Amino acid sequence: MDNCLRNQTAKIAVPKRRVVHERLPPRGRIAAMTGAKAIEAAEVTKSYGDVKALRGVNLEIAHGQCVALLGPNGAGKTVTTEIFEGYRKRDGGDVRVLGTDPNHGDRRWKSRLGIVLQDARDLTDLTVRESVTHFSSYYPNGRTSDDVIQAVGLVEKADAKAGQLSGGQRRRLDVALGIVGRPDVLFLDEPTTGFDPEARRQFWDLIDDLKEDGTTILLTTHYLDEAEHLADQVAVINRGRVLAVDSPDALGNRQKSQAVVQWLEDGVQKSASTATPTALVGELATRLGPEIPELAILRPTLEDVYLRLIADDGGDLNIPTVAGGGSRG
Ligand SMILES: Nc1ncnc2c1ncn2[C@@H]1O[C@H](COP(=O)(O)OP(=O)(O)O)[C@@H](O)[C@H]1O
Ligand SMILES: [Mg+2]
Fold first, then answer.
1. Residue from 45, 78, 190, 237 whose mutation best tests the ligand 1 pocket (most atoms within 8 A of CB)
2. Which of 9, 24, 176, 292 is 20 to 30 Å apart from 256, CA to CA?
3. Does 32 lie in the same domain as 91?
């Protein structure tokens, strides 16, 4: 919605003569910003007074990929996302989104982005259908309002005013307005906060459909299962830096980590950490019989890996109380 509003009001400020050298990335940061990636960011910095919100963010997102940006409160997710969207100006570093520096994105460029802000602005007295229809009209290849309302599961609320929706329903409307323009790149900042489990599943289906259409998606979320389900790549950000980028399965060498084997022996719960769990289970079977009581083989979850990455980075300076679920506010 906000994006559309800005699209309508934004002046197309394209300098008549650009000094090409100013637009090149700083030497050594990115070998070549060819526009081959949907999003490229190198050494992006941003400070607010003494707060170093971003301390050199590096991130690349290929076309059609879904990347989940994970990090504790204050890590820099929203600042990063909004710099990519062109809403905030970076202090340093280089960014290209669809080959364009967001600081110089024109109306056409903006029309290729879909944006769901973390805190969407209040809508007016429009109904769901009126809002979606209104914003759809801004885009040359917009989706039909019926399709969008159906996709976000608001058919029954199509004639309700935004002010009458529950928190989760409002969020769905935000998502509807983010996708109505059929964007090439979709930014979703905590899109499912406040969703009930069923709504979250519906949202996942919607994102799966958008991925099939080839939409590039940058998603911030505090839900690790959401990242695991949706993301091709997970980027962990803490204290203004991206610590790791990998597939959800491979992050932090997760699948190669030692497994923990648990079993019950002589009424006592036992466990052992091993790189060769199959061999250990074989030994146990020889000793205890083919049905090993209460056998379990555990690998670190995405959440385990995520929490370890944050802890190894010195925790979260912005929220000193980070611990377990405490980082997920
Ligand atoms: N407009 C602002 N003014 C001052 N500080 C800000 C502003 N926006 C963000 N910050 C600070 O930048 C850091 C990163 O914020 P943000 O990107 O919103 O974190 P999150 O990862 O929770 O989205 C935080 O320390 C936050 O307080
Ligand atoms: Mg945020």
1. 78
2. 292
3. yes
